[in-house]
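Inputs:
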Amino acid sequence: MKNSAFLYFLSLMLFKQKSKHIGSIVISVVLIALISSVFFISSSIKHSLKLTLKTQPDFVVTKSTLDKSMDSSLVEQIASIRGVTHINARIYGRYFFNNKGKSFLIVGIDPFEESNAKWLKSLFKDIDIDKFLSGEYMIVSSQVEKFLSAHFFKSSYTFKLPKGEFRHIKIYKTIPTQANLIANDMILLPIDTAKEILGIAEDKVTHISFDVPNDAEWQNVKTVLYDKFLNINVVDKKEISSYYDEMFAYKQGMFLLLYLISLVTFMMILYQRYSSVYSVDKKEIGILRALGWSIKDILRLKLSESFIVAMVSFVFGVFIAYVYVFVFDAPLLKYIFFGMDNLSVDIKLVPYIDMGMIVSLWLLYTIPFVSAILIPSWRVATTSAKEAMK
Amino acid sequence: MIEISNLHKTYNQNTPNEFEALKGVSFRLNDKPLIIQGISGSGKSTLLSLIAGFEKPTKGKIVVDDMLVSKLPDLHLSHYRATKVGFVFQHFNLIDSLSVMDNVIAPLIPIYKDISHIKQLALKAMQRVGIEHKAHQHTKDLSGGEKQRCAIARALVNDASIIICDEPTANLDSKNSQKFIEILKELKDDGKRIIIATHDPIFENLDFECDMLRLKDGKIEE
Amino acid sequence: MHKILLNSEVIVYMLSQSLILALLFIAFVYSVIIIKRWNFDSFDTKQFKLEDRSYLVSTIIVFALVLKSMLLFFFVHTIDALSEFVPGAMCGAGVIKANVYGNYVLVMGIVSVFFSFVWMSINSLDIKSKTYPYMKLKSYLFIAIFIFIVAEYILSWLYFTHINTTQAVSCCSVIYGKVGGGIPFGLDTTKLLVLFYLLFVLILLSVWLSSYMVTILSAIGFLVVAYYSVVYFFGTYIYQLPTHKCPFCMMQHYYYYVGYLVWGLLFGAIFLLCDSMIMKLFFKTHSTKSLKASLVMLVLFVLLCSGYVVVYYLKNGVLL
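Outputs:
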């Protein structure tokens, strides 16, 4: 095999002197694993959110004033606009569990409405809608169930209504953890029960959602809504998608900027380390030079050594990040992207990695690495052959 | 033929530590081995390192087989060292972390691409000096005489036409020194040009013809 | 602006460019010293040190060239990623036109990579000779390249800091559609394709006949014609849509990133070809390796582009 001689000698030097490289490999692996984990978490959550978004309605209308309730007659008025389909009214509100300052997101839905029924059936195959509608039952997220259980509410909870009454509601079903991305602190109730608990009048709603199948009409529909109704806020799916993109890009970018500080420190450490390692090597390199190795040959040897060290570190680092994020669900780090102020987050991170991300990670690590060792490598390569005689 | 003309070498030029190691050395090397004698600091090692192409002179010419060695750029000078010169160092200068075989193949890596061919050449060189049975042993575990033979095998592996030895017997006992002289005679008979820098008196009573050169204070002593 | 500058790809891109520039600055300083003090006939220690330093310069430039070539592709990937934040942009085409600097950054990147290739060829020749005959020429050339790279770097900052995320840009269908401008010199698709294949054959002929100047000129002509051919004809077969004309969309995953291959083969072929012709014309050296590589890449490029058309025709029985 051509070049087998060089590769043979390269592997000799690497394996015989592996202790020299252990330090830089360890630090490299840690750094790569850290930044790769952040990238993986970010892209996984973003991807899952976007997938979830696909099942959500195209538009959501809310009130822009302090009083969030809208007249339910608005529903028919909006339904009459050309292009609007699958209109659905919901109640959203926060219920505070006073002891710990934690809150639940109360979502009131009409379970017989088509899209709601579909969604519920997709979550629970054997759901009995009538039972759920009876007003005695609620569907909660796994984190809500855990929280209630920890506060001695095993299979039900007594809500304190705004007028001072109490309402005892049993847990019917628990939302599977896959949906925790958007449903982490959610309690699903029939719309009327939700209105009672949140103290919203019978003829009011807080959210009106609908679809507009024709993309081209989205702008029109928005304009009509803003013209027709005062004090409303109309958010479409694309805006939410952009918002996710920006938020994740922002968080990832901020982390990356801070990470650059450790990267620069790492480069300085590498530069110092290889300068001193190579100065110990001087005699050996002097011998090779005396035996007929040119500066170019030594440079090739040293840079190849460093490149292999960099690649090995990169592969290990990315692998460790993958296991940390997708097998162990990224304990601690994932809170960069979720808040810690309400209930703790329990979601399964789904692997989603694209080539662009791997290339970014590779460039982020390899370029600083090679930049840092370039000058020390050259310095040792220009060792005079006379060194061998000293 | 090796021709040295008006060779000067100054270290630490333009500094207070400036030191002229060679002050105009000229001679011609023919077929006979050359023994360079002189006390420490006379310029022997400097002369050897210049002829071997380890460094460049400050002034003067070194012509080896019609090639002006003294002013070659690194790529060519390294190629000259790799193909024409076999150097035996005073302290052997073996790479401790490598085996005998790996030390011997080191000069051939820049020249040949095929490792099996290189290993064959290395084996031949090791057989020549009788050290092939230690091929896979680490050099740090060898005796003085074995290290010397390993160093010689490394100097011979590229079939160099010039063999240069710097105080080759300084770290050997008399038995191994005698063995070294025998190897030298064989190399001379093979047509190699030999240059030895030494102040070992054993070289004053050799049973084959040599040229002698005495250096003092960087100049040839007449 | 913060949305753009906090984007991970932009951070990685600008960090890489900054590091490369820092190293190239060191090479620049030594090149200036070499120009001032180089004297091969001198036996001074300073001259020997300068010879050693010239290795640092060449190592840095080789390293920078390899990375800048990769960063060219990464730049395209970056602007594609930014299309999520620039309203109206569906791919890099819209983002690159977000301000006046975009196209300059891309073109300057391509040109600096090309001249770095030429520098490397001259350097290879120089270190193989016995007297470093091209040392000063190399150094002057590198200084010119360095100034170019500094300009590219400044323009990159200007570009990224002036991308407006609130103002809509045109998407590729507008930029490259009938409204945008279309094929220049009044050519239609048929004439463009005839020119495309003619120039391809002319390149092969001129190489065979060792007509170096003709090769260079036809290569440059081919580069221009090939660009328009890919955008206005071959690309439509990659997208399988006669109205989709865009040089950037084909680099997205929907099309299996084939755009990187298409543009990589084209630019690689033309760079290597022009480089080997320059070496033959001005330095009288023959590098069969790079000439062969360039021709292989050129043929692969033409086959790849034509392949999409042939496959489409075979599958559907008609052309778009």
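Remarks. DSSP finds six helices and ten strands in chain B. Chain B touches chain C at residues 13, 56-59, 71-76 (CB under 8 Å).
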